[in-house]
Amino acid sequence: MSALVLDGKALAKKTEEELSARVAILKEKSGGQTPILATILVGDDPASATYVKMKGNACRRVGMDSLQVELPSSTTTEQLLAKIDELNSNPNVHGILLQHPVPAQIDERACFDAISLEKDVDGVTCLGFGRMAMGEEAYGCATPKGIMRLLEAYDIALEGKHAVVVGRSPILGKPMAAMLLNANATVTICHSRTQDLAEHIRRADIVVGAVGKPEFIKAEWIKDGAVVVDAGYHPGGVGDIELGPLSERAAAYTPVPGGVGPMTINTLIYQSVDSGERKIG
Ligand SMILES: NC(=O)C1=CN([C@@H]2O[C@H](COP(=O)(O)OP(=O)(O)OC[C@H]3O[C@@H](n4cnc5c(N)ncnc54)[C@H](OP(=O)(O)O)[C@@H]3O)[C@@H](O)[C@H]2O)C=CC1
Ligand SMILES: Nc1nc(=O)c2c([nH]1)NC[C@@H]1CN(c3ccc(C(=O)N[C@@H](CCC(=O)O)C(=O)O)cc3)C=[N+]21
């Protein structure tokens, strides 16, 4: 039996059609003003530059604009905070994305938390995370929220299932675990100090790989019929999970590329349109 492919690329494309229509209405209601997502890139990491470019392109595909802020790698926390303040008070900017990671001298947490809640369409603030975790209204962190939207679109049942999330980073593993918990899954979070990782994964109905190491999670650890979500992305188009034989044994899996990545970008745009609509009211 071959597994169901959770096609994030196709879902993102389909959603973009709906978003284009919503952006057109938003534009009309605001007297022709194009909604804007501001992206901030600090330093010159080529992979980060590519991601930011992809986010700008996605904006334009749905009729939004992106305001691309580029700062040198020598930027200080104070300078970045000042830029974020400026974008917070720009009424035409509906969403702000600060690309992670920032250079080491910058206090990334302070800068994420300076983004105002209404513009935190990437879901990176402590306030947004806390509200989401408590089940209050907030924009979800883009990658885990994109994964939840993908699972929902394919009617993947989560309630009562055992989900194992490998990774606990602030913008991926930790919010992923909270979202799965809110969806009534039983959640295990594994990380670098976890003992017997393979044993935990063997018991999973749903596995989320968010480790940041190519093909670190082995296919043989994953049980037959599991749902396999690979958030990892590495050059050459490999994820954090060794997929190979799983495409036959799993119930469903996200391909790399074409799975989680496009849903991350789509969620960012989706939440920016939401933010614009809320302002128009
Ligand atoms: N497609 C997309 O949209 C996105 C993809 N990514 C990709 O997802 C992956 C993870 O990203 P991110 O969360 O930012 O990465 P981080 O490096 O911030 O986090 C990695 C996590 O994996 C854990 N870990 C590391 N080694 C092990 C190990 N040997 N056993 C178990 N757990 C381990 C770490 O544990 P500890 O906390 O103990 O250090 C940490 O929690 C990367 O491949 C990245 O490229 C990221 C964001 C978006
Ligand atoms: N504040 C912040 N928010 C983020 O969401 C964020 C971030 N920082 N820093 C870096 C990671 C990485 N990330 C990706 C987004 C899309 C793809 C993506 O669309 N990948 C395509 C392939 C792209 C290609 O062809 O190279 C795919 O998987 O199909 C990948 C990775 C978002 N991130």
Describe the structure.
It contains 10 helices and 9 strands. The strands form 2 sheets. The protein has a 6-stranded parallel sheet with strand order 1-9-8-7-5-6. Strands 3-2-4 form a 3-stranded parallel sheet, with helices on both faces. The longest helix has 22 residues, at 8-29. 42% of the residues lie in helices and 15% in strands. With 281 residues, the protein is an alpha/beta fold. Helix 6 (142-153) crosses helix 7. The structure holds NADPH dihydro-nicotinamide-adenine-dinucleotide phosphate (NDP) and 5,10-Methenyltetrahydrofolate (GUE). 5,10-Methenyltetrahydrofolate is lined by residues 51, 54, 97-100, 122, 124, 142-143, 171, 233, 256-258, 261-262, 264-265.
Average pLDDT, to the nearest integer?
97
CATH topology of the largest domain: Rossmann fold
Strand residue content: 5-15%
Distance between the termini: 48 Å
| Chemical compounds bound to the protein | NADPH dihydro-nicotinamide-adenine-dinucleotide phosphate, 5,10-Methenyltetrahydrofolate
Estimated helix fraction: 40-55%
Domain unit count: 2
Radius of gyration, in Å, reads 19 Å
Morphology: globular
SSE string, helices as H and strands as E? EHEHEHEHHHEHEHEEHEH
Largest beta sheet: strand ordering: 1-9-8-7-5-6
Separate helix tally = 10
Which class best fits the helix and strand makeup?
alpha/beta
Write a concise synopsis of the structure shown:
By secondary structure, this protein is of the alpha/beta class. Helix content is 42%, strand content 15%. The chain has two domains: 31-118, Leucine Dehydrogenase, chain A, domain 1 (Rossmann fold), CATH 3.40.50.10860; 142-260, NAD(P)-binding Rossmann-like Domain (Rossmann fold), CATH 3.40.50.
